Amino acid sequence: MAEDQKMRATYPYGPWAGTRGFLGRLKDGGVPKRIDNSVMRGMSGSARSEVRVAFRFLGLIAADDAALAPLGELVDAFGTDRWEDVLTTRLFAAYGGMIGNDSEWLDTGTAQQLRDHFKAAGSDSSTLDKSVRFFLAAMNDAGVKLSSYFAKGVTTPRAISTRSPNKAKSKKKPNGGPDGGKHDVTDEKATPGSTRYPFALTGARQAAVILPDTTTVAEWKGISAYVEIMLGAKKGK
Questions:
Q1: Residue 130: what are its φ and ψ, rounded to 5°?
Q2: Is the pLDDT higher at 48 or at 152?
């Protein structure tokens, strides 16, 4: 029991979308006795580790990866009108030590207060920002209204370029794009095993996302919730 509590003390630091997506996979295939590598095929080693850390912290699996009752409850609620209530209960139970006895500060607290609470509760400084992002995205998915100041202090991850480092750089003209026009996203190519989804924004702006072909609708919903948090953070700057 002491070892189990020790494992749960590590705050989740991976993307909430990954944890949510895996819950959706279990919804389709059923909850196994253990969450081991055989039920996490198709996931990278780091993604597996991040999901396990999140599951342990949330009290969904034990230190030996055995599935616990709350996992079945959360999976059963996935995709139903009970999802927000069940997820909210699980999140407040898991983050109780960080939140404290008086949760009113969650309504009007600042980003620094949130970080201080995580630090005081033992969050690893090297993954602090990631842990905060996971918390905010999960709470958003649960429909919990938190202080608008929290998102303003979220550090947005750097975008990873998909361009080849050896590709010649084109000269940029005054209006932004290589040809002097708006930014063109049509040169972004999907790699084998992934698909590019282009779409239009307001003002004739073009955008696109590239996703692995194994991405599920449930995983996309988690990604969408995460992007919403990030956009809110940028607007607050």
A1: -65, -40
A2: 48
Find the angle CA(84)-CA(155)-CA(170) to the nearest 5 degrees. Answer: 120
Cα distance between residue 23 and residue 132, in whole Å = 20
Under the banding of pLDDT at 50, 70 and 90, the label for residue 208 is confident
Residues 6+ away with beta carbon under 8 Å from 169 = none
Burial tier of 114 (Cβ tally within 10 Å: 0-12, 13-18, 19+): buried
The token pair at 114 is 């949130």
How far apart, in whole angstroms, are the C-alpha atoms of residue 75 and residue 39? 15
d(CA 160, CA 195): 17
Segment 90-132, tens digit of pLDDT = 999 999 999 999 899 999 999 999 999 999 999 988 999 999 9
Helix (H) and strand (E) counts in the chain? 11, 2
Span 18-35, pLDDT tens digits? 999 999 999 999 999 999
